[in-house]
Amino acid sequence: MSKVQVAVLGATGMIGQRFVQLLEGHPWFEMEGLYASERSEGKRLGEVNKVKDHAFMQETLSRRIEQIDIAKISKGCRVAFSGLPSDIAKDYEAKLSEAGVAVFSNAASHRMREDVPIIIPEVNSEHLEIVRTQPTYAKGGFIVTNANCSTTGLAAPLKAIQGAFGLEQVVVSTYQAVSGAGYPGVPSLDILGNVVPHIKGEEEKMEAEAVKILGTYRDGRIIDAGFQILASCARVPVHDGHLEALVVRTAKDATAEEYAKAMREFRGEPQHLELPTAPKVPIIVREEADRPQPLWDVNAGEPARAKGMAVTVGRVRKKDKYLKFFLLSHNTIRGGAGGSVINAELAYAKRMLR
Amino acid sequence: MSKVQVAVLGATGMIGQRFVQLLEGHPWFEMEGLYASERSEGKRLGEVNKVKDHAFMQETLSRRIEQIDIAKISKGCRVAFSGLPSDIAKDYEAKLSEAGVAVFSNAASHRMREDVPIIIPEVNSEHLEIVRTQPTYAKGGFIVTNANCSTTGLAAPLKAIQGAFGLEQVVVSTYQAVSGAGYPGVPSLDILGNVVPHIKGEEEKMEAEAVKILGTYRDGRIIDAGFQILASCARVPVHDGHLEALVVRTAKDATAEEYAKAMREFRGEPQHLELPTAPKVPIIVREEADRPQPLWDVNAGEPARAKGMAVTVGRVRKKDKYLKFFLLSHNTIRGGAGGSVINAELAYAKRMLR
Amino acid sequence: MSKVQVAVLGATGMIGQRFVQLLEGHPWFEMEGLYASERSEGKRLGEVNKVKDHAFMQETLSRRIEQIDIAKISKGCRVAFSGLPSDIAKDYEAKLSEAGVAVFSNAASHRMREDVPIIIPEVNSEHLEIVRTQPTYAKGGFIVTNANCSTTGLAAPLKAIQGAFGLEQVVVSTYQAVSGAGYPGVPSLDILGNVVPHIKGEEEKMEAEAVKILGTYRDGRIIDAGFQILASCARVPVHDGHLEALVVRTAKDATAEEYAKAMREFRGEPQHLELPTAPKVPIIVREEADRPQPLWDVNAGEPARAKGMAVTVGRVRKKDKYLKFFLLSHNTIRGGAGGSVINAELAYAKRMLR
Amino acid sequence: MSKVQVAVLGATGMIGQRFVQLLEGHPWFEMEGLYASERSEGKRLGEVNKVKDHAFMQETLSRRIEQIDIAKISKGCRVAFSGLPSDIAKDYEAKLSEAGVAVFSNAASHRMREDVPIIIPEVNSEHLEIVRTQPTYAKGGFIVTNANCSTTGLAAPLKAIQGAFGLEQVVVSTYQAVSGAGYPGVPSLDILGNVVPHIKGEEEKMEAEAVKILGTYRDGRIIDAGFQILASCARVPVHDGHLEALVVRTAKDATAEEYAKAMREFRGEPQHLELPTAPKVPIIVREEADRPQPLWDVNAGEPARAKGMAVTVGRVRKKDKYLKFFLLSHNTIRGGAGGSVINAELAYAKRMLR
Prior knowledge:
Chain A is α/β, with parallel strands linked by helices.
């Protein structure tokens, strides 16, 4: 069976380069072309490479980058992965879906549209149905988004807890890596030996996206989940991996061990469908006193293709009636390109890529 | 009027060195001697100096360090400032108070004793009365502690809010500097480009100390404040300055601006008494989108003697019925040596140093 | 006597902001205006401030920035301090000198012109004479440059050694701070936990400038010094302060102590003239095994106005017939704005500002 | 053919853990046991693990650590790999060789003994012959050392140049990673945002070892090479990878391209013998303007087993008659455990392990 031809948009950015890394040797998808703005046209990926997983990228360093051309892409590809910046993503992604291309986007532009789902397939694979209500769906074109990098880490652990105990309140503080701001992104003068307690729009995104992702799909609509969420976001001098401190109140009280067990044993649709990029264990619960840590746990996930796709949870503990824990996920893999790739795998498995 | 002779215990540590810095040229106190463990005896302070505020320390670098000798200290000093590690602090501090010395301690050893107050004079100067119930008080000896470095930053902002609106729930996540662990402290291999979501005993200390400090002094006892507090503590690669993300629910709802105003206009006993180390404005509320930051705000506080004694608050905002803000305070000045010094100033002003 | 009115060009950059810091309360100069590109016009300095020496800057944060206007500047100021980027410095500085303004520039644009001196007044104050050969000098306008930030640190120690023992060969490797690249400058993704062994054009500048600065002024010309210099430049994750490792062969052999003594006792014209920004001791030689270090020594220099103006030297040692040592200097003060300010003070003291 | 049983000494340290990583699945060697000081006895490797290459180490995390027992080791093992600290290495390694064990040591203790070679097999595999002069050789016991981590990077590039053009002078400055100091090693307070221009004994080791390694083996003795070497060593806030800036004068002058070619095409005995841990290309010469960098190049080396075993060279350029370049090598793999492993492979291939 021949592979699905796919395009990578924004191939010169942090997320775009992760797309190339994750699609290299993919069993279902084949990169037809790498696309970016006029500025990068004609360059080789190697010239603009900013992802340090050297060995992984070696083979693909010589791929050439083309200017984004809707007609050409829609002719050659059924799928486009978008790592475009939000300001230009909106227009390009809309045009591609009109041209019959299934767009899996990492940009925020269309996330809050009523007919566009934010998919994290472990959590809300049934939301994918809503793309059938998009006007372009008949032509084979539609838009699926993945969540913001800081929301992504939350989703599976909260789903596991929601399923077992019901969710009432979530307070989350983030320790976010600099790669989340892209390249060049955060100036070193701002972050060396410092913490910046502000990431523009991030708290609002987390709060809005979390209740949508964990919401209920019914009668062609997504109804936001009913829990309260309060987010505080800060940038720390770390390369990759968003750490988050969680305080959660559930409807039904439980012990720390019961909460940990619910997360440890949680499995979702990607695990049942054995999607190629799905980690066997989506939530890894560590017992050590001082984990998860970005340096140690950012690439968690097995098998090899799922490296960086698992969420690591640690320090699961109780205070009064509240559950406290820390979680870590890879912001440009699970919370970026990998999130879009696994969404496309879900759509493929559900035969929605025509 | 002659100055009060004081001893510095643990003079070779991070806190001890800050004591020396803050007592240099003090209008009321004069360093009689610097004391530390046998290991450091005979060394000069300059040989062990690890505080980088070079200009400040220059004059005192040649002071010699002696071994701790209770008899000698109690003969020459009415006051001892203790930067001793907790394990040895317990014994030494008890012996000194028995020998008639007023001990102002930065160690945790005696903090939870019923007759020992944890004083942050802006917040609970009236708790100082409780030292009169200590068995050694008749001889002039007693123990006063200051709070853990991460609790200290919280205290004044929470007091301001408590006073104006009543406190129901506090959720706090910390971004703590490496100097909080002393020297050598945190190995660079653990923290370079990393965050460690665990500091032994820290969350428990914050949770227990905060309700004691903000509690009520009545009939010779301190009654813990009634609000709930949930803390998550993490270490970040920053030299000095503990940043904290706060989510607070008050008894009486208010707007973000009302909360900010209550903190901005807050003044305490040290401001009324014009204590030498008291900052004129104890809580500095910043309007910028991205403050406070350790690099910029750690030394906040005026006049010069109060550098590092003010707490900086920023991003005061509302979500649902919750107040959210960030705060920053200097962990080895306000949350360390400076905390003890201002406590001694309070006791001096109240004529309790006999 | 009224002060000399001065303009600061490029006031929104790293160097421009240091100019403001250093000129605040200057005994001879008074800031008439702050100028920058159109983009910053109308902003206040506080809005663009990126220098963390908060206390110092407080008073000046409200100064307004104007667009660069040659006619207006030349009407109101006899002196302009330029922190402009090299590409636009060339033209603006030339026009200002034509308009009769004495320009003290931190940009590289005019440094290698035959009639423009690179002045480090401790080293080559006599080179200032060459400005009399500039065509605009009759009108009172001329251009004086200071050296590249990495060359500056070298100059005084090499001069001290050259004077006492003669210089034959200098091999220098640098460990340069990120502030040397301005703001936003070095992306954090490139330098966190990393070293970048390349700074565009830096090695060439060091090699060309060092022999010019240490050259001989004779008959209206500067003749390059005859020693060989070989530079390797790298960027390290440090905020401020360029550290350099030196290996030097002198004409006359000496002991490590003799070399150290020559540097320690070295004094130059600024010390004799007691220029306001001159450090009393221009080269501070440390005896400790592990100094100089950026964190500890970057602000060396006394009195207060000379903070960051001294060079710190350490680990003076011999191997075979070679002298080895490390040096550190503040790259945006001594190697930036402070270098221009002390040059203007020299010109003022020599009555060349008419 | 059964594998050679080997012991790992000092298994809880940085180097010891790298030994375990590199010996996992080795085609010729099998770990019989992990040994360390009394303090670690009975612990599992996972409890003390400080090497972040998580995936690699997973399988071995449950291995138990035993106390060092010469009799037990010599009974079960023909080979011991030593990652012991220098102070205790001297005695243990001597005893093991007396007990008939071939010791491949990373410690400095025996390096300068006349009958102990410092082997970097690409450079001086013939020096291995000298172990035949060790008094214990008849019993099968001997000691082979690898070089200090900062010397190791130098060796192959200098050998390539020495062979083609002759070496006269080498000036080297280092930018060394914190893992070189072991764990806990460098305190974060000393190195965050800082550079420390001193590593005890390091410059002396580099200077003494380099001329021994590149020396000539003749008549049972090693005669030091005749070139001059001048080293300056500094620690930078980098996890792994020592970067070095080189300035070299050769006997025969050549162009930058000729120097680069000599290094690029250099192959040594490990490449000819196809030793398991040998990189196919021992010196990787990069053409980019800004390489090598620790973050990008530290793990250079192919195939998978040789990851971190190649030296990366970049910025090969000329100034006057001097060659300048930067090099990078992994300090705990190539410059640590990997260096000992490849030495043991060489001895195995030469049938010296009896």
